[in-house]
């Protein structure tokens, strides 16, 4: 027992073992009472209320540091995401512009094909390579030539109407004169009443003229001009332009008629070379008639031998008949 005793300054002896046992029994009793009857729950709740400000004060610096670090990192991540999304948006816009251009080109080509349905048997689409536009000369260079079957005087169309006519042909390229060229003329007729006349170029891509109509001619603003088909150069019924203005002067014998071209002369990039049905079908009868003649001759020659054998066989029986009669005698 000497090892578990200590002496204080007053000389009294305290039993350390006795204190340990008493405190252990007290703690065990409190645990049992708290477990079974929960008498200390209210005290614990009160103590938690008192200790809550202390917990907040202790945890606040750490939570503040974590929030600051997360906010800084989140802001940097947002900046990086924003830059990435902006780059993707620019690429998407560039692609969208290209898709819109392709869609517009597809619509133009579809318009070219639909407008020539029933008029031509063959067509060829070419791209404009170069422009030669001035006050006295309005021509374009197209990437189709003699090796593609293009010929001088061939009609050239776009998705809106008559564009021009082939003026010169090379092996790989062709020069097309616009309908607005001052030296070009095209036979037309007014779609409303069938009145025929000639439309000539003025050197201005936005204006044609009808210089040969008298002042008494039945023509009004808004009339549609179409190709008459005379001369065989252009397909009939194809739009040439719309009458924009009609000026009549009693002192003049001819009316001053301005026409707005139907073709987009200053914007078209794809042009169509067309072969009319008469041009495509003209060599066909010659080739079909040639084999027809040998067939008819072969049939006629085959028919002739069929008729000649009977006369050849009839004479021998006539000659053998008399000898038979002689034997009977």
List keywords for this structure.
329 residues; alpha+beta; 6 helices; 44% helix; rod-shaped; disordered N terminus; disordered C terminus
Fold and architecture overview:
It is a single chain. With 329 residues, the chain is of the alpha+beta class. It is 44% helix and 25% strand. The chain has 6 helices and 14 strands. It has helices spanning 16-37, 41-115, 277-281, 283-307, 309-313, 315-328; strands spanning 5-7, 13-15, 120-133, 138-142, 155-157, 162-169, 174-178, 185-190, 196-201, 208-209, 224-227, 239-247, 256-261, 270-276. A 6-stranded antiparallel barrel has the order 3-4-7-6-5-14. Strand 6 and strand 7 (174-178) form a beta hairpin. The N and C termini lie far apart (189 Å).
